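Re-run with default settings, no changes from the original entry. Doing this only to confirm the output is reproducible before filing.
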Amino acid sequence: MGAAVVYFYLAAILSLVAVADSVDKAVVPGDRVGLDAIFDATDGQHWRNNTGWLSDSCWCTWYGVTCYNGTLGACASVYAIDLSSNGLRGSIPDKIGAIQLMVSLNMTNNTLSSTLPAALFKLPRLQYLNIGLGQLTGTIPTAVSQCTTLRELSLYTHQLSGTVPSLSELGELRILDLYGNKLSGPLPSVSSAVEYVMVNNNTFSGDIPPSVAGRQPKSSGRSGVTGWRSRSTSPTANPEPKSVGGRKFDESL
C-alpha cells in the first residue's frame, strides 16, 4: 500500500473522529423538517411573530429558536424553542420528534388542541417541557415514562384526561405541573428529587403518594402558588446557554 493511500485513510479516520466529537453541535437534517411541521400545524402564517420562519435563512435566526454553537461552518442544531404567547393554533405535529437534540420546548399560553404526540417524549435530550394554558385533549402518552432526561413537565390547564403514566423512573424531574385538567385514577409516585408538584383541579383518586404529599403548594389556587414563578424555560440567545431563569441545563446529556 503506497504512502499516498495510507495518508488518505488516515485523513479519513481523523475526519470521522472530528465529526463524532462535534455531532451534538452539528446540524441534524431533521431540524428543518420538524420546524416546518410546527409552522404548518399551528397556523404559522398568523402567529404574532413569525420572523424568519420558512425562509432560506439559517433557522438559528428565526423567532423563538435557539441553537447550539455553530460548527463545521453550517447552521447548528436546534437547542431550544420558545413560542409562548405567540398565537399558535392547531396541533403539535408528530414530526416535532425530528428535532432530535432539542433540550427545551415552551409553547405555553397558545390555542393548541388535539393530543400530545408520543414523539415529543422520545427526544433523547429533552429537559424542559412547558405547554401550559391551552386546549389539549386525550391522554398523556406512556412514552413520558421513558423520558428520563426531563427536569420539568408542565402541562397545566388543558383538557387532558385518563391516568398519568408512571413517573418513578424520571430521576431528573424537579417540576411537575398538571394543574387544571381532567386527569383521574391514582396519582403516581415521583422521584425524591422533585421539588414542586401542582396537581390540583383534577379528579385523582386514592391516597396521595408520600413522594408527592410534601411537595404540593399550600394553596389550591394558582394565584397562591409561591416559590416558583418563572415560565421562561427556553434560552433567548446564542451561544449555547448554561442556564435560563435560574435553571441550569445539564450539559452531560
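The two ends are 42 Å apart (CA to CA). Helices lie at 3-21, 30-41, 210-213.
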